[in-house]
Write a structure and sequence with these properties.
This protein is an alpha/beta fold and 310 residues long. The chain contains 13 helices and 12 strands. The longest helix has 24 residues. The protein is globular, with a radius of gyration of 19 Å.
Length: 310
């Protein structure tokens, strides 16, 4: 799957993943009203609004980007109907040939970790039959329970040729409380990065490993170090746009050929119609606003990368 992701990045010239993280506050009134007329102001109504919102966004951007990243908590908050909307979103994105990164941030041990892995990336056996419950292409994993929390995911990835993005240095403001702590004179995130590189050695694609890393755009200097620590790991970079990251901050995460990283933007794209720069589209054309935001982001990143090569 890492090979497919790299090929699609080359084809689209857009190292971008769109975060499908819908809050009801992002969803235009006309979409909510239609869903509530059919299902009432219920969990089912909220899930339908989310699904219709996602579908419009995907229809407008699927030809511009290689991947999407639905954040499962935004769906879980609406219970079983929300999870059904998550699954419909995953399936629809895959029907558009998008790579789907399930942002699930799971991290547990033993049989629990194995159950998460087969539920999201693999197959579960029911009697004589096998099913793919959620069937994302990649999943995000929290490594802070150690190797026995990650190995079940790696096993499934090897079997299914799927991938992981392991949290190394996250973009949130308080991440340094633990991740920056010095261990043997070096920050903890560097040790985690080294472990990601080791895990990835057994899961190589053509040029990069199936095992990637999450490193926040808000820490470009740390990204520069971690790019060297994990030379074969694709880096998923959150924090662009709404969290303050800009194209110029992203250069250290990439290799010299402009590969090696994929940058996430969530509300900066899916709720672009709420921004002054895209207000001309209005809530009625929120999908077109999202497309325009993707086009701007692609130009911003490419300009920064081209400046690196000069």
């Amino acid at each position: 799957m890492i090979n497919k992701l790299v090929k699609k990045i080359k084809k689209t010239k857009a190292p971008i993943v769109v975060g499908l993280d819908p809050m009801l506050s992002y969803i235009p009134e006309q979409v909510q009203t239609k869903a509530f007329l059919e299902y009432g102001e219920t969990l089912e109504g909220a899930a339908e609004a989310i699904w219709q919102f996602n579908k419009e966004i995907v229809d407008k951007i699927y030809d511009l980007v290689p991947a999407v990243k639905p954040q499962i908590a935004m769906y879980e908050q609406f219970g079983i109907p929300g999870l059904a909307a998550f699954k419909k979103t995953v399936d629809y994105c895959k029907s558009k040939d998008l790579v789907v990164i399930g942002d699930i941030k799971r991290g547990d041990i033993g049989s629990t970790s194995a159950a998460y892995a087969v539920g999201h990336l693999g197959k579960v056996k029911v009697g004589s039959r096998e099913f793919r419950p959620f069937d994302e292409d990649f999943a995000t994993v929290n490594p802070y329970l150690g190797s026995d929390g990650v190995q079940p995911f790696i096993k499934v990835c090897q079997e299914e040729k799927k991938g992981l993005f392991i949290l190394v240095k996250t973009s949130n403001p308080s991440s340094g409380e633990f991740q920056d702590r010095l261990i043997d004179g070096r920050p903890l995130y560097e040790h985690v990065g080294e472990k990601v590189a080791q895990w990835g050695e057994a899961c190589m694609g053509e040029d990069y490993s199936y095992i990637g890393a999450v490193v926040g755009a808000t820490y470009p200097e740390m990204g520069k170090i971690l790019r060297k620590v994990m030379p074969k790991a694709y880096i998923l970079v959150p924090g662009y746009g709404a969290q303050g990251g800009q194209g110029k901050d992203l250069v250290p995460f990439f290799d010299q050929d402009g590969l090696g990283a994929i940058v996430n933007s969530s509300r900066g794209i899916i709720a672009a119609y709420k921004q002054e720069a895209y207000a001309k589209f209005g809530a009625e054309h929120f999908g077109d606003a999202a497309r325009a935001a993707v086009e701007f982001m692609r130009e911003d990143i490419q300009s920064a990368l081209e400046g690196k090569a000069v």
